[in-house]
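We store chain and fold; example below:
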Amino acid sequence: MVMQRKIYVGLVTLMVIIFTFITGCSDQAASTQKGNSLPSSSGAIPKEIRIGYQVSPNGELLAKALGLLEKKYPDIKVNWIKFDSGRDVNNAIASGSIDFGLVGTPPGSIGIAKGLPYQVYYLHDLIGESEALVVKEDAGITSLKDLKGKKIATTFSSTSHFSLLGALKKEGIDPQKENITILDMQVPDIYAAWKRKDIDGAYIWQPMQAKLVQDGGDIIITSKDLAAKGVITAEFGIVHKDFAKNYPDIVKGYISVLDEAVHYYHEKPEQSAQVLSKELELSPEESLKTMKQIIWLDVSQQKKYFGTPGQPGELAKVLKDTGDFMAAQKAIASSPDAPAYQQALLSDLYK
C-alpha cells in the first residue's frame, strides 16, 4: 500500500513537471512571436510607478502638474523623479531604478543601439523653437561662422548636442579647425557658467533657453530651422521591458493620461500655461510661449510615427539617422540596422 502511494505521488509529480515545462515553452514561444507588442491584458497592479521626467514644456509635465496619473490610479504610489538629461534617464533605466522615462532622439538612439532594457511607447513631441543656440549679445556672434574661437556649452548626447553638431555640419564648419570649444555641461552648470561669463553661448532647451535670453542672450538658430534642413529631433517616452511585460494595462493607462493632458492643452492653453508656470519656473506668458515652440502629439498621431514591423514609421527612420550620426561622432561603437530601431517601438499599441 505504501509502495502504491509512492508510485502515485511520483506520477503526479512527473505530470506537474511535464505540464510546467510545456506551458513554459508555450509562453516563451508566444513571447518570441509577439516581438515589439505588449501582452493583450493583465490584471496585475504595481504598488508603485516610478517616472523619470524632465522639465520640458510637454504633455508629460502637464500630466504631472495636473495630477492626472494619481487620479487615474489612486491606490498606486506615483513617484516622479527629476532628471536633467536623457543620458541620466538611460542610466536610471539600465539600473532598474525607474519604470518610465523621457528621452530625446539622440540618447534614445544610443540606448537602443546599446541594447538597454526599454521600449518606446509614446512620441511626446517634435522639437521646434524650444531648443536653440543662444549667445551673449556682447560676444560678437551673429551667425554660425562667428563661432570661431568661441566656447559653446551643451549637454553631450542630447537633442541640443545633436542639433548643434548638425548645424555646424550643414554650414560646412569643422569645430576643430575653427577652434570652437564645445563643452559638456548639465543645465544648472550651463546657467552658472553663463553668469560667470565662462562661455560665449549654449545650445539648450526650454526653460533654460528663455532664462539665457532674459539674461542678455540672442538666438542665432533654432531646432525648427534645422528641422527644415533635415536635422530632426523629438522627445519620446520609454518603458522598462520588465514593467511593460508585467503591467501592460498600466502602460496603456498612462498613454490615455498623456493623451488627456495633450487635449487639455489644446482646449485650454492659457490654463495649461498657468499650471506649468511653477514647473517651468517661468511666468504664465513665458510658459505659454515655450509650450507653443514644440509640436504636441496626441494618440491619434502616433501611428504615423510608430508604423508596423512590416511598414516602419517615421520615428524608426529618425532614430536610425540619429544613430548613424552618433556612431560617426563615436558616441556609440556602431548603429544597428533599421529593423532594430523599429523593433524597439511598441507599434502594436497604435494599430
